[in-house]
Known about the structure:
The complex is a heterotrimer of chains A (about 475), B (about 100) and C (about 500).
Chain A: H1 3-9, E1 15-25, E2 62-63, H2 64-76, E3 80-81, E4 84-85, E5 88-91, E6 101-104, E7 111-112, E8 115-120, E9 123-136, E10 140-146, E11 149-153, E12 160-166, H3 173-189, E13 202-211, E14 221-226, H4 229-248, E15 256-261, E16 266-269, E17 282-283, E18 290-291, H5 294-303, H6 308-319, H7 323-329, H8 333-346, H9 349-366, H10 378-389, H11 395-406, H12 413-420, H13 428-441, H14 443-450, H15 455-467, H16 474-485
Parallel strand pairs in A: 14-15
Antiparallel strand pairs in A: 1-12, 1-13, 3-7, 4-18, 5-6, 5-17, 7-9, 8-9, 9-12, 10-11, 13-14, 15-16
Helix pairs in contact in A: 3-4, 6-7, 7-9, 8-9, 8-10, 10-11, 13-15, 13-16, 14-15, 15-16
Chain B: H1 5-14, H2 21-38, E1 66-67, H3 77-80, E2 87-88, E3 91-95
Chain C: H1 9-17, H2 23-36, E1 43-45, H3 48-63, E2 74-78, H4 105-112, E3 116-121, H5 155-162, E4 168-173, H6 179-185, E5 188-191, E6 211-216, H7 219-229, E7 269-273, H8 283-298, E8 302-306, H9 314-329, H10 348-359, H11 362-375, H12 381-401, E9 407-411, H13 427-432, H14 438-443, E10 447-455, E11 459-466, H15 472-485
Parallel strand pairs in C: 2-3, 2-4, 7-8, 7-9
Antiparallel strand pairs in C: 1-3, 4-6, 5-6, 5-10, 9-11, 10-11
Amino acid sequence: MSDKKKASLLVQGYEVVIGFETHAQLATQSKIFSRAPTAFGAEPNTQACAVDLALPGTLPVMNREAVACAIRLGLALGSHIAEQSVFARKNYFYPDLPKGYQISQFEIPVVQGGEVSFYLGDEKKSVRLVRAHLEEDAGKSLHEDFHGLSGIDLNRAGTPLLEIVTEPDIRSSAEAVAYAKELHKIVTWIGICDGNMQEGSFRCDANVSVRKPGEPLGTRREIKNLNSFKFMQQAIDYEVRWQIEQIEDGLAIQQATVLFDPDTGETRAMRTKEDAADYRYFPDPDLPPLVIERSWVDEVKASMPELPRQMAERLVADYGLPEYDATTLTQSPAMAAYFETAAKASGQPKMASNWIMGEVSRRLNNEEKDIAQAPVNAATLAALLKRISDGTVSNNAGKQVMDALWAGEGQDVDAVIEAKGLRQMNDAGALETIIDEVMAANAPMVEQFRAGKDKAFNALVGLVMKASKGKANPQQVNDVLRQKLG
Amino acid sequence: MSLTLSDIGRIAHLARLEMPPAEAERMLTQLNGFFDIVEQMKAVDTTGVEPLAHPTAVIDHVSLRLRPDVASEPNNREANQKSAPAVERGLFLVPKVIE
Amino acid sequence: MSDLHQWGVAELAAAIADKKTSSVEAAQALLARARQHQNLGAYLSFNEDLTLAQAKAADARIAAGERGPLLGVPLAHKDIFVTQGFPSTAGSKMLQGYQSPFDATVVANLAKAGAVTLGKLNCDEFAMGGSNENSAYFVARNPWDTARVPGGSSGGSAVAVAARLAPAVTGTDTGGSIRQPASFCNVTGIKPTYGRCSRYGMIAFASSLDQAGPMARSAADCATLLTAMAGPDIDRDSTSLDHPAEDYSRLLGSPREGASAAQPLKGLRIGLPKEFFGEGCAPDVLAAVRGALAEYEKLGATLVDISLPRTELSIPVYYIIAPAEASSNLSRFDGVKFGHRAAQYEDLLDMYKKSRSEGFGPEVQRRIMIGTYVLSHGYYDAYYLKAQQIRRLIAQDFQDAFAQCDVIAGPAAPTTAWKIGDKTDDPVANYLADIFTLPASLAGLPGMSVPAGFGAGHLPVGLQLIGNYFQEAALLQTAHAFQQTTDWHFQSPEGF
Lengths: 486, 99, 496
């Protein structure tokens, strides 16, 4: 990054340093160490079996699919997948942690290294991963009052998680959100996580610190449970400003865990925990080491879908699209498939890209719809694009056709064009006649143009379009008018 | 190796055990006595020796068995909560958890 | 059937199959006898209705023509195994009245074979102890001298067999808790190879050491029980070995390969670790053990001097690893989902501390403290990691020894049973008494204790036999051959 760019990211002269920890709930049928179901929203403790409740005598048995998910993530991120990794116990007491320890991975995680690349604006970024490891989720504490008590629901206890940890490579809140969105895209793309942030399937913690450029890393505070992209940026921005204010006031930053309050827009430290909790990690004696053979990794690799990044590169190569377009279009397998269908059928990849990123996406966002719910399918869009590119309708008329199609007025592009009378005039003779008429009726304007006033040209074009009731092909009008004006 | 009373306090807290002063003193003596025996371990040369976490790993490769991803445990809430100290509407009740 | 209690498993099973008695009759007789001898403190709980229902069901299976070596046979389970219908306390106030919604796999296996549960047996709290004095409920008494301990932690189990309250029982062995009480009470017991029996449903003490095993009056009966108990539990225990189930009785009564009926143990090399026969062992114990070894020689075995040089180190190594694992395994006892919750507390932290301090006895708290300390930040490498490294060296020592012998023998314990109360002031002295049983536990090797005679005061002495991994059948064969020509194991205490 250029110094100028680096400088432009500084906040009040401070460099922002962010590392992310994301907990992605894996979309398995059963829990990581028990055979209880993982479905969201069940009645309390109806999906917490003896193993999940840590009843005396219970033991963990590993879910193969959870490991497969880890392998898929590792392949997607270009990480090293450990041939042998170890499960360790993280010991602490909390009511939503039934065993009094969490089975996680400590010294030897299943996925090591890797990176996530994405675009921030039109700049390509890459955030390095330290590791991703498998662990079990805890239950939930419900704080609605039970006469001053908390209610513990252990349905979620034992749900498989992948904890994905980055190096502190992120330098702004915008970059953080872009990273999180890309990671979210990847885990949903490869089908290991349903990405439902409201349900807690994808939870982000941001480790934030500030420093003057060139100085060692500042003390970081951890913002926990950032479960929406919108609040993520707000929270980080607030935290950064807060830390800078502290430092400017001569106060040291204490390491702390903080929560973001969306109502106040502020981060506040959680009740001070014991400094650096002693988790007494040790390898879990109930679980022998996890061995992943090369052959299994190869098998998983062969069954992986084309990843968003590769697909984006292919779209650039095959369709000549700009990187930005390719990245946007590969936001989901469905969107990418929509594009490819439309591009192939219409033979107009760039136009297809523009229309999908523009007209289609705008309508989808307004209606909070997914591409899968678009009332206009890719084939229909392709038909419309064809009619624009062959001059049957102008681009503007095309938008009106889209309005009609989107509103459900049929799926036949030609029928809609006819019904709305949007057919562009392509008859050269008729056009010449109109132009001659306009020129004749507006001789002073013609003189002005010939005298050097360029603006007059556009006015004349406007008059021709009006005279043709919008049906003239603007490009044709341009060409012929210029010719006649000399 | 000598522990102190403050060690006893710290460990008792980590283990969520009460340790009133008289008990702490007694525990301190007993633990120090125990750790005297443990000193012998220091003299053993263990350079390059892999820890033995699973005993039969001495004779055989021990690796984690993986089970198919099938949710086969039925809802057994009533039986599972039979010995629960405090339950309401299916939830385990505890003193308020302050974040 | 007034002497029904004198029968071992084989005789009882045969009598029930031949309709000389019924499972119901046998169960009733043994329940009555258990009540009669409650002063021994062997049993912690009963559920007579359930026992009789099980017995009825077994009788029905027999009436339908089914046969099996355990069908209808009443036995009892150490209270470390969770059982539906009987409370499961692990000898602790922490689990007073706890009702498990499932059975331990070992219990289910025995039930499938038709065994009937008489009740739950007393033990040291969470299997931590060597005398049953750490039971939170009451001590168990050695029927050979009721002022003395029966050993532990499977004290109640040993008492039940010794006093003929049950023909056979289950126990657990983490650092010697089957072998040592068997030795103190003149009972036969075996701890199989680590991972041979499922640990699912065994209330966990030290995960990498705990093993279930039978205790009975003879090696033959132990073999019958072990055959039913053992086997892979792929679905529920990740440390259960994927090794096919075996018939542990298959070598009983057969001479070794190349041996004769007269000298069935010819070719058997019995290794005697010099560390097991030194000053640390009481002379009366040594005398009984040597007497037993002489019998083995008569049966054709050869005695070989070997060394297990790190025997003494097994004490610190075990007493670091076991408490470390236990401290973590016992964290689930927090008063939230099950178990004891204090009646009064101010907040969550107070609830945890009071519940745990009230629910756990002093020895359990001590081991939790040790375990928490050795895992804590800054000490892990010097203690836990170091201990696991030495553990590997100890296991390798055994492999070196097995190059020179087939079976290792020695005393199961350095002394005979001591008086109740004698050792309660010095917990560390108790740890030192485990010296002969700990090494095989750390290595995960199978070990037996076989009645070998008596020491001073007519107190029983057990001979420990240690085999290589998966050599249970050979161990039982060896013990059985000895029991064919000696009668120590038939002897019962006066009045029982």
